[in-house]
Amino acid sequence: MALQLIQPAAPDDTAATPRALSDRSYQRLATQLLALIAQGEFKLGERLPSERALAERFDVSRTSVREAMIALELQGVVEVRGGSGIYVTQVRANAAASPFVSETGPGPFELLRARCLIESEIASVAAETRKDADLDRIFTALSDMREHIDNKEENEAADQLFHLRIAESTGNSVLLQMVSAMWAQAKGPVWTKIEHHFHTQELRLASHADHQRIFKALLARDPIAARTAMRAHLERVISEFAQAWR
Question: What distance in Å separates the CA atoms of residue 115 and residue 178, rounded to the nearest whole number?
C-alpha cells in the first residue's frame, strides 16, 4: 500500500454542525475573558489570575485555559511573561466585534488526546501485522529524526513520517487516513504558538527515545509493549505542553 498524505475534506457548509464541535470550550473561554477585559475586571497591565483559578471559576479544564490564553496571545490581548505570569496588554472596547481566533478545528490538547487513544491501538495492531519491509521504512524515519534533532522542521517531518509508516504497516487504509488527517490538523496558529512556548530540543530528544522504544516493540512483535510505548510518548507531549509557562 503506497503511503499517501490525506488532506481532510472541506467542511460542508450546508450540514448541521454539533455545538460541541463548532464552539470549542477554549474559544468560549477566550471570548468570556475578552469580555471581562473590555468591562474592566482585568485592567491593562494587570496580571491575570492563575490557570488553576480560572479553571475553577469557569468550570473548565486547565488545558482549556492554556489554549484560551494562547488564543488571546495571538490577538495581542495578553502577553506571556515567563516565570511571572500572563498580563493584559490590550483592551478592546467592543469585544464581541473582535473575533479572537480564526481556527475552527480542534484545540491542541483535544487533538493530542485523540492521537493518544487512536495511535496507541494502531501501534498494537502494527506490532502483529508489520512486515520486514515496513520495519525498514519505519527505521529510516526514526534515523532521520535523530539526524535532524537540531532542526525542528526536518525533525517534525521525520516524526510525522514515523507515525504514518506505523499506520501504513497495519495494512488498513482507513487507519492510515485517520493518522494523516490528525497530523494535518496540527498546523493552525494556536498549535504553532503552543509549540513556540513548549516544543524544545529536550522534548525532541525525549521523543526520539520514545520512538526507539516503540520501534523495539514493533521489532519484537509485542502488541502490549507497542501500545504502552506509544501511549507513554503522546502522554509525554501532552504533559510537556501543559507544564508551567517558562
Answer: 9
- Written in H, E and C, the secondary structure of 79-103 is EEECCCEEEECCCCCCHHHCCCCCC
Helix (H, G, I), strand (E, B) or coil at 109: helix
Pick the more confident residue, 161 or 21. Answer: 161
- Confidence band of 154 (pLDDT split at 50, 70, 90): very high
Rounded CA-CA distance 146/122 in Å is 23
Distance CA 99, CA 91 (A): 14
Q: What is the reported pLDDT for 10?
A: 43
- 3-class DSSP assignment, residue 78: strand
Rounded mean pLDDT, 146-161: 95
CA dist 156 and 143 (Å) reads 13
Which residues have C-beta within 8 Å of that of residue 214, sequence separation ≥ 6?
123, 166, 226, 229, 230, 233
Q: Cα angle at 27 between 25 and 30, to 5 degrees?
A: 110
Q: How far apart are CA 138 and CA 39, in angstroms?
A: 54
What is the reported pLDDT for 26?
84
**pTM for the model:** 0.80
